[in-house]
Structures are given as structure tokens and as C-alpha cells.
Amino acid sequence: MHCKHVALLTVMTSLCVGIQLTPRPPNVEFTSIICFLVGFLFGSPFGAFLGALTMFINGFLSPWGFAGIIMPFQMLGMALMGLVGGVYRKCLGGTPSTSKILNLEISFLAAFLTLIYDIITNVGYAMLFNVNIIFALIAGTWFTIVHVVSNTVLFVAAFFGLVRIVSNLLGENVWSYQKGA
Amino acid sequence: MELSKRSLVIFCLGWLASLVLTSCIAGYYYMESQNLTELLEKYGSCIMRVNICIDYKEWNSTVVWYNDTIVPLGCDLLQATKMVATVNSTYWPTIGASFVDAINGVWKTSLYYWMWRYWDQNENEWKYGPVGADCYKLTNGEIVMWRYEIPSYP
Fold it and tell me: Does the beta-carbon distance from B10 to A148 stay under 8 Å?
């Protein structure tokens, strides 16, 4: 890995962990959007690695306590966020649709990915503690809803704005930046 | 407006997510109702159901019914009313009973008072309560009414 990328990964991971440790309402988080954004701008492997690393560190430092054996599931879920960010960027290609369609797409994608993240972590919990999987999913319904709604709103409100800001900072065209990373 | 294949796939994923969430909500409420039904069955021998009416007709022309209110066995009217409404009452040691001053913020005045009646099943009519609400033990299926009124004893 190029040293520029190592530096970038370190900064982004610190940012994610810092936000993760900030007091906030349960299940309202900003790590998903950052991992998705990084995957979108710098490629799937980079985004996935950032997601996994963030959840690994968060597992030890979280104010809710040591994540323990749930940690691999959290890492997997967040890695998926970064991974899909890169895949989505590839699917968009060089000729993106109108912004309205893109905003709709990103909101649906955010809802779906957040739900997948929650399903992965709930399934992990159910498997490890020998609880019925359906029961685990249903018991966490309201936490899942808060997570899905907050992430959907956050993605719609901030994602493309952040893409523009980061690409301006980097001085690159957003739709071609990934090739150079 | 033509949608690309990518957009359609993503919209389908979003639709799937909403379907799963809706199912989870339905499952959650189903589980809650099962738990509550179990709880009711478990404590079935220690509870009873009463119907409480609060008549504010003289205040704002409304009447509110609390049918099938679950109360503990042997519960008195004052306790039962406190389960469905905010009640302010004063205990009078000289008469050994409580007097209701207000229900849900509607206070007695020098003219209007909160009076309670019970439904007499034999005579099919409302009758004034013979004692203070805290001295009257309710029975299963009983119908009682609080009425904001100018008392009119027969």
C-alpha cells in the first residue's frame, strides 16, 4: 500500500473511531457514511478495510463495553458498507443519472445496507448466544428502525455533498478519481 | 423518465428492506401481544374487568368510557379511577372516606361536584354511590360512572 494511502486510512479510521466514541443516541452513527464514501472514492478494498479496521478498534474502545465475539460480525457488516461504496461507484460509471435519481438510489441503498448490517450483527448475536435468529431480529426491531432511518436521512442529506467537498479538496474529478487511487 | 437497470435493482433492494422492516414491526407487536396474553392468563385469577365512565357533559359535553379496564381483585373505585385518569382527592378522617376534588384537571366548584354512580343491573338504572369511592369495592364486570354535576339526591 502506498504511504499516501496508509496516511489516508489512518486519518479516516481515527475520524470514524472518534465519532464512534462521541456520545450520541443509540444506533445513530456516522461510520457507515464515511466507509461508504471512502469505498466510493478510493475503491472497494480501501472502503472495506476502513470499515473492518474501524469496527475492530471500536470493539475495544466502545463506551458500551468490549464488543467481544460480536466484533467479527460488526467488522464484516461495516466492511460490506465500504465494499458496496466502491461497487456502486463502478456501477455509476462515467455518466451518472440526474441528481434526483441518485439521491433516491442512495437513500434506498443506505436503508438496505444498514438493514444488512443489523441482520449480520443480530445473526451473530443469535448464533453465539444460542438465541432464535428470528427472535433476535424482532427483539431489536426499534433499534434497527432508528439505525435505518437515521442512516437513510444522513446519506440523502450528506453523501453527494461530501463527495463534492472531498473531490474539490483533492482537486480531482470525482468520476475519475478512483482510477488514480 | 427512464430508469436504468442499476436504479431498478437498487429500488428493489430498498423495497425488500422496507418489507423486512415491516415484517419485523408486525412480528414485534405479535410477540408483545402474545406476552401480554400470557401475562393476563397467568394473573387471570387475581384480576377483574370493570367499565368506568367519566361524564364531563356539564363541563365540555364529552363522555369518556374506559371499558374492560383491568384492575386487581378487590380494588376500590378510587384506585380503579386512578388507573384511567388523574385524580385529586382529599381524605376526610371524620367520615373515614375520600372526596374526589378533580378528575383529569376538572376541579369541583361551589356548585359542581364529582359524583359517582353505579349501574343497578336489577332496576336497570344509575344509582348514586352509597359510600365514598375509596370505600366501595368493585366487582367483576361492574359499570360505574363519574359525573361532573350539581348533585341531585332523590
Answer: no
